[in-house]
Structures are given as structure tokens and as C-alpha cells.
């Protein structure tokens, strides 16, 4: 599904009158061009394809890169054979046509049909190849027709000069009863690179092989192309998602191994502390910590849900019937839990900050049934736990809450 | 220390690497194993083991768009003695240049790097030509030793931003 702009260079020289590729070399070429255009536009609807001829009176661009398949098929109609192929000029004009493509995000590709004998030296072809590589243009070569000595080697040299990460390909098609397009279907020129395989090509190949089985998803793209396309896209998405999930799992595994201290979420803090055994030498201490963490986790969750009742779980279990004793118990329990958390959570996890937070403590206090935040003993307790400056602010808040 | 002074940023200028629009950065003729990110991205560019290398020949064409309009003050290019760049041409606000049309336009500035520059000393540019830069194209024409491959270890751009609207900060007005 690569976004691509393609220029196809057709050989319409005198050598194409030969009939060694049925029905004639030129007709076989035209069929192949039609199939390629169809495959490209189907694999990505934003792909564009253009066509130019290399022989005749000179290099002539028949249609500039477009996604309109009808225009491309129409321009193949009524082409005349004659003259000699000018390969270098053809490739240069193709490069220029690609340079002026409308969508600059498209990758550039040239497909050239070389049917006539090559009159260029290897060096010239290599220079052209290097220039194409420099401008990041990929090149596909279809070597057919005349096979004078040296032609395959020269074309291979051209391919080697232009090839960048296997994006360019060459196909040598010997003469025979098989149609040129059939041979091309199974090549990477048609199927694209890697998993850009188009269902179109697969279906065409299957049909050519004579069987109706073996479709990608049990759906015949010829009958229902949209469904086949949708299935293919969803499979690719699923694959990509799985890859991303696998990558993420690998990353998380790496993170846990490091035992990151600066955890951003409480969940990570719990996990990190479980892993960093160095901070907790004794075994039972660890168990305590995990219990505390769970309790603290519950507190944080409860606070965020504005449900203060469950927040009392860790702090106080005793009944709040007698306010005086309850205050003392409460103070003691608070101090204990704060100390514990301050000691154990030496890392800067949010738990310790939560407990040391003045507002958290006072909001829990205010929600307790028997406790009056304005009671002097509670005030003293608060002052002893936290800084003085925040107390005034907290008085307003618990007052409003106790008025409910 | 001389080396510290040479790499210190001029007063008032910031490193523009934060304003680079990474999704549209392009580099023509780069080697697939040694790509532009090695020279430009924070972290990679300070690692001397990672560098940007050219592929088919010694020229490189780097296109760097910015997320907002900037003024470019100076540029620091670090590279090895022999394969580091020598002639560097800078074009401001020219999109999608190719090797064929680099010589069609006069560059906004053209610099010949000395060995001091290759160690990291920034080159001060013609500030007046870079007052309104949306994108920068760097054309490395040849290298110090005339080698087939040019190698760049670090490209750092210094300048200031022009206050333009950052589309991401635009928020819809709440209607009451």
C-alpha cells in the first residue's frame, strides 16, 4: 500500500513488430501496461501512473501521472510503431515527469520496458542509475525482446547502480508461449515490496493458474473488490496493532528490569517497589509495604471518587462513639500510618505526598462522624503533622463540610 | 576554555531543533544506514559514533521545515577532517528542491567551512536574509578532501522564533 507515482516507459520501436511474444511484442507490452496500471491504482487509490513512449519521432509523454485508469487505457489505443528507442532520454523525461508530480509525498518509480537492443555503454547506464538513486527514484526493468550479447549484464549493472534497499527490480522474460503479462504478475514488479502485495495480483495470478481457489480471504476480489480490500486493510491494521503491542510489552519489560524509581503512577510505584528489593531488606517488611500500598492505593482511589468512607479503612477501625478517645486513637493511628508511609515510601511516589497533603488529611477528618475539626486537640494534631501556613485554609474547608 | 567558548550559543539565540517539523524533514542522497536523524536529532547528534553519510556521490540535499516562522542566526556543522562538508549553500523557504535545480536559484547564503567550523564552531549567517524562515534547505556541495562520500556528524541551527500563531494552541471559545 505504498503511496507511489509511477512512470511507465514503453518501447514502441520497429523491433516490437516481432511475434515471438504472442500476439506481438507490442501487444504483449500493452497488456502488461494495462495490468500494471490496474494493480497500482488498486493497491492504493492515491497512486498515480503515467505513460510515455521512447521511440517513434522522439520521447513523448502520452499521459502525465494520473489515477484515472480510463485515461491511461485510452492513450494506449492507436499507438504506432517505428523508429529507435532512446533509453537515456526516456528515463530522463520520466524522471522529470515524476519531479513535477502533484503530490510530493508519493514515492517515485519508473518502469521501463527494454525490448530493443541496447546501444549504450555500461558506464552511461551506471551514471543514469546513480542519478536516479541520488534523487530517490526506484527503477523496475523488464528485459524482453531482442537479446544481443551483453544486454542482460548491462541492465543488471544499471539495476545495481540504482538499487536502494531492494526497491528496484529487474525481470528477464524469454520468448515463449506464455504471455508477457502472465509472467510479470508473479514478479515483484507487480506484487510490490514486502507486504504491499495487492489482492488484485493474487487474484489475477490465481485466475491465470486456472483455479478459483487460494484467495487471500476467501473472497474473490474480482467479484467483490471492496470487501476484499476491507478485509485486507483490517488484517494489516491488526498486524500493525499486534506489532505495536508486542513492542510495548518489550518496552515495559525493559522498564521493570531497571526498577525505575521515579514512577509516575501509583501502580508503577507498587510494581517498582516490588522489584527493587534492595530498598526492603527484610521479607516481612516487604509484605507490610505491599499491604500498605494496597491500602494507600484504595485511599487514593477513594479520594478521587469523593467517597471518604472507604478512605478510612487504613486509618481507623475503631468506633467513633466517644469523641475524646476517638480523637486520640485517630491521632495515633494517623501518625503511625504517616510515619510508616514516610519511612517506607522513601521514593517520591504519589502515595507519600498524598498522605502528607494537608487537605487530604483534613478532608478525611471532617468526614468522620465523631470528629469535629474545630476541636483544639485535632487542630494541634494537624499543626504538628503539617506546616502552620496551610491550617487557615483548611479551617474554611472542614467548616463548610461539617455544615452539611 | 577556547573550545567551550566556541560552542557556546550567542546571547539571545536558541537552538532551533525544538521547532523542526519532523514529519516533513527530507534528505536526498543519504545512505540508508546513516540517515539524517543521526545528525539532526537531539541525542543522536551528540553521539560521535552516529553520523549522516551520503550515498551515490558526495552531495547532500537536506530539507528542514519548521513548525513556525523563525529567524536563523547561525549554524554549526560538525564533521570529520577529510569527509566533512566544505561548500554549503543555504536556501530559505524553497520547498522540494532537487539536485537539478540547486543551481537555478541564488542561495540565501553560501558558506565554506573551515576545519574550525568542523569542530563545532558556529558559522554566522547573513541574518538579514533569514528573517522569515519557514523552511531551510541545506545543500552540501562537496567535502574537504574531495572524497566520494560526505560525512556529517552534527547539524545545529541557532536563531530566534518569530511569534506566530501555533495552531495547536488555538482553542474554541466556550459558548454559554
Model description:
The complex is a heterodimer of chains A (404) and B (176). Chain A is an alpha/beta fold and 404 residues long. Chain A is built from 17 helices and six strands. Chain A has helices spanning 25-43, 69-76, 87-99, 122-134, 151-162, 180-185, 188-191, 199-209, 225-258, 266-275, 283-304, 308-315, 323-344, 350-356, 358-367, 376-385, 391-402, and strands at 4-10, 48-53, 60-66, 107-114, 137-143, 169-172. A six-stranded mixed sheet of chain A has the order 3-2-1-4-5-6, sandwiched between helices. In chain A, helix 1 (25-43) packs antiparallel against helix 2, helix 10 (266-275) runs antiparallel to helix 11 and helix 15 (358-367) runs parallel beside helix 17 (391-402). Chain A is elongated and about 110 Å long. With 176 residues, chain B is mainly beta. Chain B is built from three helices and ten strands, in the order H-E-E-H-E-E-E-E-H-E-E-E-E. Chain B has helices spanning 2-7, 37-40, 115-118, and strands at residues 14-15, 26-28, 52-53, 60-78, 85-92, 109-112, 123-124, 133-143, 151-152, 154-161. Chains A and B meet through helix 4 of A and loops of B.
